[in-house]
Design brief:
Number of domains: 2
Distance between the termini: 11 Å
Strand content: 5-15%
Number of strands: 9
Helix content: 55-70%
Strand order of the largest sheet: 7-8-9
Length: 302
């Protein structure tokens, strides 16, 4: 007991702090809920040390959790191949992997009990995964849709399969659909796709020296095409761009995108003020995980 009294006496009479790295294996991590390393205190102490540790704790939470959440946005999901709808697939920065996430949750639980960050991030992740799965599912269906569009059925049993260059068709569709997707609202996207008329399609198709081009890209090669064949290519491209199944899928993706943006904005509205108060050193909390004089003394001396 006399040693403990001496410790408190030293603290009350001191003006400086000295510390060095020291490994205390007997200290429980749950008790050491702050960002500083293990320290061994010197004979003299200063309250400035404890205040600085608290600031470090807040800064770490801000840099690792709060600031990334205040700047949260849908990022284009990395892809190793050029996919038709890569502009509609997203990823986000996952703050849950940070060591400071549990401390941020403790702060929010105490200071904003009506805001369940962990639940909101879990719901957002589920929505994002469902969105990406829907997009990837459509991408797998596109080749068959294209194949069917280029097959013209006649009254005979055989019909005719028009040739096409798949990479060019994919590139054209990607550019067209991306334009509609990025510039249209969900309730307008189908209508705006359907305004793409056959007349406009006709302007974009040329046939010369056995080569058919659309938007300047070679989409097929055939030296024996008739005027009727050219008209068929025009009709095929028009129907492909205005395909009901694809356009309604894009509408669904856009609705999902807008819902994801709403979820992001809800998180930002709660988190951004926390970042601002930490930057101004005005942040206050009811959480008990932060460094205090008594907690540091208890953890390292008793």
């Amino acid at each position: 007991m006399s040693d403990n009294n001496n410790i408190f006496q030293n603290i009350s009479n001191s003006s400086n702090v000295g510390y060095s790295l020291h490994n205390h294996n007997n200290i429980n991590d749950n008790e050491r809920n702050f960002s500083c390393s293990y320290y061994r205190f010197s004979i003299s102490y200063s309250m400035a040390f404890f205040f600085e540790e608290r600031r470090k704790h807040y800064r770490n939470m801000k840099n690792e959790i709060f600031k990334p959440l205040s700047q949260l946005n849908l990022n284009k999901k990395p892809s190793y191949s050029q996919s038709l709808f890569d502009y509609a697939r997203y990823s986000i920065h996952d703050v849950k992997t940070s060591l400071f996430y549990k401390y941020a949750l403790e702060h929010l639980t105490k200071d904003r009990p009506n805001f369940n960050l962990d639940l909101k991030l879990s719901n957002f992740k589920e929505s994002l995964e469902n969105h990406n799965e829907e997009v990837e599912s459509l991408e797998k269906e596109i080749p068959l849709i294209i194949q069917k569009k280029f097959r013209i059925s006649y009254q005979t049993l055989t019909g005719r399969q028009y040739s096409f260059i798949e990479s060019s068709i994919n590139y054209i569709l990607k550019n067209r659909f991306e334009r509609f997707y990025t510039t249209s609202k969900s309730d307008k996207i189908v209508e705006e796709i359907n305004t793409y008329s056959t007349k406009e399609t006709y302007k974009n198709i040329t046939y010369q020296n056995g080569i058919i081009k659309f938007d300047g890209l070679r989409i097929a090669e055939n030296n024996n095409l008739t005027e009727n064949d050219i008209e068929q290519y025009i009709e095929i491209m028009d129907k492909l761009i205005k395909d009901d199944f694809i356009s309604n899928k894009l509408k669904k993706f856009k609705q999902s995108n807008e819902n994801l943006d709403l979820q992001i904005n809800e998180i930002k509205q709660e988190i951004t003020p926390i970042v601002e108060t930490i930057d101004r050193e005005l942040y206050e909390t009811k959480a008990k995980c932060c460094p205090t004089v008594l907690r540091l003394i208890r953890n390292y001396f008793f």
